[in-house]
Design goal:
This protein is α+β, with helices and mostly antiparallel strands. The protein contains two helices and six strands. It has two domains: 31 residues, no CATH class; 33 residues, no CATH class. It is elongated.
Length: 74
């Protein structure tokens, strides 16, 4: 595998980076599906909170999160 990969679909650039970066931080649903198995969940983000169903997560730019309420996985 190359040390840098460009993921392109229908002439549109989706992600450019190393294999680990693309696998762990895909820029789009297409990239996640193209690179490997994925589980996509509908999430909305508002005021630093990510919501998936009835679950709420506090999200920071550093990637850490804290579950504030849990009633199952989406």
């Amino acid at each position: 595998m190359s040390d840098r990969i460009a993921v392109i679909n229908d002439g549109r650039h989706h992600k450019l980076g190393g294999p680990e970066e693309i696998y762990h931080n895909p820029a789009s649903a297409f990239t996640a599906d193209f690179i490997g198995e994925s589980t996509l969940m509908p999430v909305t983000v508002r005021d630093g909170k990510a919501r998936c169903g009835k679950d709420r997560l506090s999200v920071s730019r550093g990637g850490s999160s804290e579950r504030t309420k849990s009633r199952g996985l989406c």
